[in-house]
Amino acid sequence: MPNFIQVLTTTPSKAHATEIAQHLLNRHLAGCVQISGPITSSYWWEGKLETAEEWYCIIKTTADRYAKVEAEIRATHKYEVPEILAFSVVVGSKDYLGWLAGTLK
Questions:
Q1: Which of 10, 31, 55, 103 supports an S-S bond with 17, CB 3.0-4.6 Å?
Q2: Which domains are delineated in the chain?
């Protein structure tokens, strides 16, 4: 079974999240992308405390695809410094992970 990961990024709008999701799915870099939001993010940017409405993309993929996923997110993302974080899937349903592996061929 492949080494599965979830990649997280945030976007400024649901439309932009959908654009990134479709971009990754159409290239078979992700088997599933979940979009949720809106969320409120507070953060430091250029010396100022900012607050913004954002949307999450949770991207299901494999570790060997991470570099391509990151490159595609960077190529399509509207942020100068997008949040791109990957988390290992330690364990999961055999049926779900089997399905996910099948989508990434």
A1: 55
A2: 4-103 (3.30.70.120)
